[in-house]
Amino acid sequence: MRIRLDRTMCDGFGVCAKHAASYFSLDDWGYATLVGTGDVPEEDRPAVTRALLDCPVHAIVELTDQTSAPQPDTDTDTDTHETEWGIVR
């Protein structure tokens, strides 16, 4: 498991540090910082998953393998897309 923390979304609730203190530290105002690289070994996965799920602003996300990500649409034929979307000129 690999996680990322978006500090711009963090509202300082501190729930993440409560569940997984070895992965999240709080600054003087209560905002979280990710400790380490975001790589989570199997034995720590339940605590980090709980922190991810309990974050009220969803500032913690699990990163997935890039190969499983959907590939972008490479068809750039505007007329075809406009027809599919119901746009009439």
Write up this protein.
The mean pLDDT is 86. The chain has a domain at 2-63: Alpha-Beta Plaits, CATH 3.30.70. The termini are far apart. By secondary structure, the protein is of the alpha+beta class. Strands 1-4 form a two-stranded antiparallel ribbon. A two-stranded antiparallel sheet has the order 2-3. Helix content is 26%, strand content 16%. This is Ferredoxin. It comes from Mycolicibacterium llatzerense. Residues 64-89 are annotated as: Disordered. InterPro entries: Fe-S_cluster_ET. Residues 78-89 have a biased composition (Basic and acidic residues).
Task: Quickly count the helices.
Answer: 3
Oligomer: single chain
Q: What distance separates the N and C termini?
A: 49 Å
Tell me, what's the shape?
Answer: elongated
CATH topology of the domain at 2-63: Alpha-Beta Plaits
Secondary-structure-derived class: alpha+beta
Weakly predicted, low-confidence segments: none
